[in-house]
């Protein structure tokens, strides 16, 4: 067995993950002995992989597509964020117990604390999209005390299901309704794939948006999405999606290696360079 702490990211496929770049940067920065390994795990091998972690000398790791929901079902000790989101991206050991969390909501909030610190004073949000990413954002908004959220989705029943799960202050609404509701929003968040390279553009619905509102996209390829461009054009302060990717990695590194890393400009430039060289995948 290795005499240093081993961490992993497991998914299928896994070769495109940028997490090794992030964690290896921090390992080097702190001069720590440790590893962060990319492991391709097919769905049928997932439970055997998780059951063998301790014996293999792993201190924990990240889980990504398509395993996030399956790991949530597998691990007994899940925290509030994982329970609300119904998916796990980070696991670690406390003694012999495997613990699990979802750090996407943390990553979203920590990035906004960095980029748009006033976001915690706002009260009304508008969230576009009702998929897995949207669940993490709704959890973060609830934690931050948002009083009202308009949840916009093409497939309305999906938004209604999330409204039922996350509270009465969530109002499921259509894209048509969004053009009016946007006048009231202090914070706008895109969680859909609209505007991502190769996907349709985000629709032009900013006519009545407020210049003093804040806007955040979780898409980071391209870094300046059509959504963020429109928000800037109407005077809004914005935050791009790369920050969330970097910040969501912080709690895992701290659990596995015992030090809390910082998201700095060098790390951001390193990951941005990788995106520019290798593209969106
Ligand atoms: P994730 O887990 O990353 O959030 P997802 O569950 O596939 O991914 O959700 C993608 C989101 O983008 C959904 O809200 C989806 O809307 P539907 O629920 O109606 O499918 C939204 N989305 C994707 N393509 C879209 C499009 N062309 N127009 C409008 N919404 C779109």
Tell me the series of helices and strands, N- to C-terminal.
EHEHEHEHEEHEHEHEHEEHEHHH
Radius of gyration: 19 Å
Query: What ions, cofactors and ligands are bound?
Result: 2'-monophosphoadenosine-5'-diphosphate
Known CATH architecture of the largest domain: 3-Layer(aba) Sandwich
Anisotropy-based shape: globular
Description:
- This protein has twelve helices and twelve strands.
- The protein is of the alpha/beta class and 281 residues long.
- The chain folds into two domains: 6-103 and 249-278, Rossmann fold; 106-243, Rossmann fold (3-Layer(aba) Sandwich).
- It has a six-stranded mixed sheet. Strands 9-8-7-10-11-12 form a six-stranded parallel sheet, sandwiched between helices.
- Helix 1 links the parallel strand 1 and strand 2 (35-40).
- The structure holds 2'-monophosphoadenosine-5'-diphosphate.
Please provide a brief summary of the model.
It contains 12 helices and 12 strands.
Topology:
Blueprint: E1 6-11, H1 19-30, E2 35-40, H2 46-51, E3 58-63, H3 68-74, E4 77-78, H4 80-85, E5 90-94, E6 97-101, H5 104-115, E7 124-128, H6 132-143, E8 148-152, H7 156-166, E9 170-173, H8 175-181, E10 187-190, E11 214-217, H9 226-233, E12 237-239, H10 242-247, H11 250-257, H12 265-278
Parallel strand pairs: 1-2, 1-3, 4-6, 7-8, 7-10, 8-9, 10-11, 11-12
Antiparallel strand pairs: 3-5, 5-6
Helix pairs in contact: 5-6
The structure holds 2'-monophosphoadenosine-5'-diphosphate.
2'-monophosphoadenosine-5'-diphosphate (ATR) is lined by residues 129-134, 153-155, 158, 191-194, 200.
